[in-house]
Amino acid sequence: MIKAGIMGATGYTGAELVRLLELHPEIETIFLDSRSYEGVRFDAIYPNLRSKVEDICRSINVDDVPEDTDIIFSALPHRVSQSKVLPLIKRGFRVIDFSADFRLREATIYEHWYETKHLDDRTLKKAVYGLPEWYADSIANAALVANPGCFPTSILLPLLPLLKEKRLHNKEIIIDSKTGVSGAGRSSSEVNIFSQVNENIKAYNIGKHRHTPEIEQELSLAAGSSVNILFTPHLIPIDRGILSTIVISAEGITRKDVETCYEAYYEKAPFIRILKEGYLPETKAVKGSNFCDIGFVIDSRSGKLVVVSAIDNLLKGSSSQAVQNMNVMFGLDERTGLDTAPIWP
């Protein structure tokens, strides 16, 4: 059995990770770290896991992590995570980090967007970006995997093949993404209280969302040249899910061109579902799963390609993608512990 520990287990993504690892046939979870709930049984915090996860949360210092731990998941917030991850890497542990602390390849870009100093530029450059459909070979041998953000996952998976194959002009990419309230986290704030979220949709952080440089970094690598995007996220009154709509110039491109491109890259990707003509993704069709659904329409009148993707923000946008990365790191089938159908309705 692979022995796993979770730092920051009691946030939404940490809790989903606990649930997934409980179902995983090759995993033994040996500690659940939480400063806020030290000494509390996990199923007292998350009643959906009654009779399934009875472990007591502990506040774990880095020096106290057992030597026989095979993999550590850090579901800690940005800034906090690097202070824990760096000493774990120095002790020789393999780590999957949920925060943004190791996603950006340049410390100066990280420091600009996250307004905090990065503690180790050398380790940052060694981290592997954890998008398994694209970086599986590097993930397999990585000591540190930077789990992608939820919005970037929903945007990169549909765009990377098209930019890699130079199918599209990359000078004007307009992205509209809508996310459920769980993306704001578990802590109560004005962002996620019921009376202000219910029956309300709002845009936020236009042009300055912190996922922007992560998206542009990976798109630029695929395109072989600098890519800039206009990214508008919206908060909508659903619990979970992301729907991203991407508009990009596509003069001279046919539906067959796009289908062939996706097939070449994702034919053997078990969690990417390319929808047939006449169908478009919806958040409910991926809820509770590791799937990313992708559909598209070519609008010949405007000369635009409109691509739509849907993911569960807590799963493919975070926790189940982390498990997929772990499976790759330990030579398991990517689908192990994840091959379940979405919940409907």
Automatic annotation (TrEMBL):
<dbReference type="InterPro" id="IPR050085">
    <property type="entry name" value="AGPR"/>
</dbReference>
<keyword id="KW-0560">Oxidoreductase</keyword>
<dbReference type="Pfam" id="PF01118">
    <property type="entry name" value="Semialdhyde_dh"/>
</dbReference>
<dbReference type="InterPro" id="IPR036291">
    <property type="entry name" value="NAD(P)-bd_dom_sf"/>
</dbReference>
<dbReference type="GO" id="GO:0005737">
    <property type="term" value="C:cytoplasm"/>
</dbReference>
<dbReference type="Pfam" id="PF22698">
    <property type="entry name" value="Semialdhyde_dhC_1"/>
</dbReference>
<feature type="domain" description="Semialdehyde dehydrogenase NAD-binding">
    <location>
        <begin position="3"/>
        <end position="142"/>
    </location>
</feature>
<keyword id="KW-0055">Arginine biosynthesis</keyword>
<dbReference type="InterPro" id="IPR000534">
    <property type="entry name" value="Semialdehyde_DH_NAD-bd"/>
</dbReference>
<keyword id="KW-0521">NADP</keyword>
<feature type="active site">
    <location>
        <position position="150"/>
    </location>
</feature>
<dbReference type="GO" id="GO:0051287">
    <property type="term" value="F:NAD binding"/>
</dbReference>
<comment type="similarity">
    <text>Belongs to the NAGSA dehydrogenase family. Type 1 subfamily.</text>
</comment>
<dbReference type="InterPro" id="IPR058924">
    <property type="entry name" value="AGPR_dimerisation_dom"/>
</dbReference>
<keyword id="KW-0028">Amino-acid biosynthesis</keyword>
<comment type="pathway">
    <text>Amino-acid biosynthesis; L-arginine biosynthesis; N(2)-acetyl-L-ornithine from L-glutamate: step 3/4.</text>
</comment>
<dbReference type="InterPro" id="IPR000706">
    <property type="entry name" value="AGPR_type-1"/>
</dbReference>
<dbReference type="GO" id="GO:0006526">
    <property type="term" value="P:L-arginine biosynthetic process"/>
</dbReference>
<comment type="function">
    <text>Catalyzes the NADPH-dependent reduction of N-acetyl-5-glutamyl phosphate to yield N-acetyl-L-glutamate 5-semialdehyde.</text>
</comment>
<dbReference type="InterPro" id="IPR023013">
    <property type="entry name" value="AGPR_AS"/>
</dbReference>
<protein>
    <recommendedName>
        <fullName>N-acetyl-gamma-glutamyl-phosphate reductase</fullName>
        <ecNumber>1.2.1.38</ecNumber>
    </recommendedName>
</protein>
<dbReference type="GO" id="GO:0070401">
    <property type="term" value="F:NADP+ binding"/>
</dbReference>
<dbReference type="GO" id="GO:0003942">
    <property type="term" value="F:N-acetyl-gamma-glutamyl-phosphate reductase activity"/>
</dbReference>
<keyword id="KW-0963">Cytoplasm</keyword>
